Amino acid sequence: MSNAATQGLVRNMSWMTFPNLIVKPAWFLFITLVCIRYMGLAEYGVLTAALALMSICDGSLTLGSSPYTIREVARDRSQAGLFFSNLLISRMVMSLAAIGMGLGIRVWLGTGALDVVVFAGIYVFFRNLLEYCRALFRAHEQFQMEAGSTLLEKLLVIGAGTWALLMAPSAASAMMGMGAGMGLAFLGTFLWTVRRVAPFRLSHLSWDFYRRALPHAIPLGLSSIFVLLYYRTDSIMLEAMQGELVTGQYGLAFRITEAMVLLPYIVSSVLLPRLSALRGADAGAFNRLFRRGIFGMAGVATLAGLVVWILAPWFIPFLDPSPEAAPAVPLLRILLISFVLNAINQMATTHLTATHQQNRLAIILAAAAAINIGLNLLLIPDLSAVGAAWATVVTQGIILILFVPALRGSGA
Predict the structure, then answer these.
(1) Which of these, 407, 141, 216, lies nearest to 293 by C-alpha position?
(2) Contact assessment for residue 277 and residue 356, using Cβ atoms and an 8 Å cutoff
(3) Model's pTM, two decimal places?
(4) What angle do CA 155, 159, 160 make, to 5 degrees?
(5) What is the predicted pLDDT for the residue at 49?
(6) Distance CA 9, CA 11 (A)
(7) pLDDT at position 359, please?
(8) Which candidate, 63, 70, 224, places its Cα nearest to that of 138?
(9) What average pLDDT does the segment 243-260 reach?
(10) N- to C-terminal Cα distance for the chain?
(11) Do 395 and 402 meet the contact criterion of CB atoms below 8 Å apart?
C-alpha cells in the first residue's frame, strides 16, 4: 500500500478518534454514573432492558442497508443519491414498524413500563436514520463530517437527557429527553448530508432498485439481527427471569465493555470502505491491510482488557458506590473476555462484508445467535447474571472458530 494510501487511513482514523475521545467518555459517564445516581440501579435495569428490546426490533428491520451502501457507494459514488433516497425511506418505514413490534413483545412478556419502550423506540428510530446518513459519509471517506455529526449527537442527547432527569429522575424521563436530542441530531445531520454528500429526491424512489438491492442487502441485515440477538437478548431475558436489580448490575458491567468497543468500531469503520475499494483491484494490498488490522486489533484489545480487568474493583464503585453494585465487578471481568474476542470478530466481519461473503457471514451469526439464546435459557435460571455473561463469552468464541475457515478460504 502506498504512502499516500497509508496517510489517508491514518487521517481517517484520526477524524474518527478525535471526536470519540471527547464524546465517548462523556456519554459513558452520562449513561452509567448520571443515570444510575439519579434513577437508581433497579430503574436503570428498566432502561437497559427497554433499550435492548428496541435495538433488537429496530435492527431486525434495517435490512443491512448501511454496510451494503458503504460497500457499493465506495466503488461508485455517483450512485449515492439513489441509495440515500431509497434506503432512508425504507429505514423510516421499518423503524416505525419496529416500535409496534417492541410494544407487542413488551406486553407479551408482561414486564410493564410501556412508556419507557415507546420513548426508547423514538430514540432508536432517530438513531437508525442518523446512522444511515453516516453510512454515506463513510462511503465517501468523509470522516470529518461524521466527526461533526458525532459531536452534535452526543451534545444534544446528553444535554436533553440530563435535563429530563433533573425534571423527573426516571427511566421514562431519561429516554424521552434522549429521544428528543437524537431527533434534533438527525435533522442536523440529514441537512448536512443532503447539502454536502448525497441528494435526497423522491424521484429516485424505484421498486426496481429495491428488487436489485434487497438480495444483496438482506444477508447483511440478517447478520446484524443475529449480532443484536446475542448481544442484547441477555438483558431482556435477565429482566424477565431475575428482575430489574440484577439487570441493572449486568447493565452496568455491559456498558463498560460497550464503551470499549469504540476501538474496533473506529478501525472497522475506516477499513470497510477502503477494503471494499481494494477488492478485485489490488489483492496484495487488500490482504496486507486486513492482516495488519486484525493482528493489531487483537494485541491492542487484549492489552486494554487486561488494564480494565485490574481496575475493575475500583472502577465499579466509582460509578455506583452502593453495595448493590458490587456483583458488577466479577460480571465485568467475565465480559472483558468477550470484548477481546468481539474486537477480533469485528475485523473478520469487515473482511467478509468487503469480499461479498454476506451469505456465509449470516449463516455463522445465525448459528451463534441460536447458541447464545439457548445458553442464556440454560444458564440464567441457575447462575443469574454470571450465566448470561459466560453465555456471551462462549458465543464470541464460537464465532471466532467459525470465522477461521471462512478467512482462510478467501486467502486472508
Answers:
(1) 407
(2) no
(3) 0.70
(4) 120
(5) 85
(6) 5
(7) 82
(8) 70
(9) 87
(10) 16
(11) no
- The grid coordinates of residue 262 equal 469504540
Rounded to whole angstroms, the Cα distance separating 406 from 412 reads 9
Q: Quote the cell numbers at residue 81.
A: 443519491
pLDDT tens-digit series, residues 102-152: 888 888 877 667 889 999 999 999 999 999 999 899 888 887 888 889 899
Whether residue 66 contacts residue 135, with contact meaning beta carbons closer than 8 Å, is answered with: yes
In SS3 terms, the chain reads as CCHHHHHHHHHHHHHHHHHHHHHHHHHHHHHHHHHHHHHCHHHHHHHHHHHHHHHHHHHCCCCCHHHHHHHHHHHCHHHHHHHHHHHHHHHHHHHHHHHHHHHHHHHHHCCCCHHHHHHHHHHHHHHHHHHHHHHHHHHCCCHHHHHHHHHHHHHHHHHHHHHHHHHCCCHHHHHHHHHHHHHHHHHHHHHHHHHHCCCCCHHHCCHHHHHHHHHHHHHHHHHHHHHHHHHHHHHHHHHHHHCHHHHHHHHHHHHHHHHHCHHHHHHHHHHHHHHHHHCCCCHHHHHHHHHHHHHHHHHHHHHHHHHHHHHHHHHHHHHCCCHHHCCHHHHHHHHHHHHHHHHHHHHHHHHHHHCCCHHHHHHHHHHHHHHHHHHHHHHHHHHCHHHHHHHHHHHHHHHHHHHHHHHHHCCC
**b/e map 148-165, b = 16+ CB within 10 Å:** bbbbbbbbbbbbbbbebb
**Distances from the Cα of 216 to the Cα of 193, 208, 358, angstroms:** 24, 14, 8
Average pLDDT of the residues of the chain: 85
User: What distance in Å separates the CA atoms of residue 387 and residue 327, rounded to the nearest whole number?
Assistant: 13
Amino acid identity, position 407: L
Of 25, 19, 31, whose CA–CA distance to 254 is shortest?
A: 31
Average pLDDT of span 69-73: 85
Instruction: Give the C-alpha separation, 114 to 96, whole Å.
Output: 16
226 against 330, higher pLDDT:
330
CA distances from 293 to 43, 75, 264, 279 (A): 40, 21, 9, 16
Identify which has the larger pLDDT, 188 or 353: 188
Please, which pLDDT band fits residue 22 given cuts at 50, 70 and 90? confident
What does each C-alpha distance from 404 to 267, 268, 306 come to in angstroms?
Answer: 20, 18, 24
pLDDT at 328 over 70: yes
> Taking 60 as the threshold, does the pLDDT of residue 4 lie above it?
no
In sequence order, what are the residues at sequence separation of 6 or more whose Cβ sits closer than 8 angstroms to the Cβ of residue 97? 61
